[in-house]
Each structure stands twice: as structure tokens, then as C-alpha cells.
Amino acid sequence: MTDTLSCCKERGRRYPDGRLLCHRHTSPDQRQLVDHLDEQARRLGLFDQYGGWPYGPNIDIAARQQLVDWATDLGVSRAETRCQNLHWLRVGRCGVRYYEALPRWADHVTRWKRDGPPALLVAQPYGLTDEDLADLEVLGDEGLHVEIVGEGWYGHGTTMVQVWNRQAWQSQAGESRLDLLGG
Predict the structure, then answer these.
(1) pTM of the complete model
(2) What per-residue confidence (pLDDT) applies to 68?
(3) Does residue 33 form part of some domain?
């Protein structure tokens, strides 16, 4: 078998060993890994309303594992919302007449909730300019909490930016402190 067969190039998923394989050319162990991650994603509420992974993990199995681990650690699930702006994160709902375009740093965006209400927006841009960093700093003054985490689950040289609803962040940060204290 060659590294990438023609059918795999068209319909393949990238596996942790770097190979791109379609379902037909995967091993039983690889299929079992995919099934296991899909089951975890269903249980954690990571799929969108159509039952699919976000862009990136939809074709990258290592990204799926990183996403499952990240969501488990934070206790978040995907938010089913058509809201495309930070207003949703600030007030917990979309404003019918309120429109705010997402800034340039908002690439590969996903929205997350924690125990129901909006918790955070995750962007994974390929880079952050000085202007982007200034924009992110302003969000802290607007009642949001911003964390630039480094490379996230999307991978491919992107940087994970987490923009938290301040109340959800304080709750998450408090739980992290309790974990460190053994509480």
C-alpha cells in the first residue's frame, strides 16, 4: 500500500502517524480509535447540530483527541447558536438587530457553553498581529476574559485564543484552584 492512495486523498482522514487514509484502508485499531473518539464527542456534546466535528477535527484524528481532552478538562460543550458575534458571549443571547462583525483574529471560530449558558468563544488564527493583540486587550475592558493559550486542538501552526464570558471564566478558574488544593 502506498502512503496515500487516490481514494484516500479524496475521502481520507489524517491519522496521528501522519497518513491520510479513507475508511476502506484503515486498520481495525484505527477504526476503533475513531469510534471511541466519536462516542466521547457525542457524550460530551462536541458535535454540531448535524452530528459533525468542527472544521479541523473533522479530518484530523489527532485534533479530535486534543479537542476531546480540552473540552473534558474545561467541562464545556459546543453551543448550538447561529450568533456570529461577541454579543452572544456578553449577554447570553443574540440581539436580533445587533450585528457586530468578528475581528480579523477570529479564524476557525467555535462557540462553547458550560452548564447551559454561553461560556467562551475560541478562535484559532494562524497568527496575531499587534493590532489583533490590541483588539483582544480591549475585550478585557468590556467584561470578557481573554487567554492566548498557544497551539490549540486545531493545530497547523495556529494559536488558540479563548474569549470567556467573565462569569464562566471565574467559575472555571475557581474549580481549577480547588483541584490544585485537592478540593
Answers:
(1) 0.84
(2) 96
(3) yes
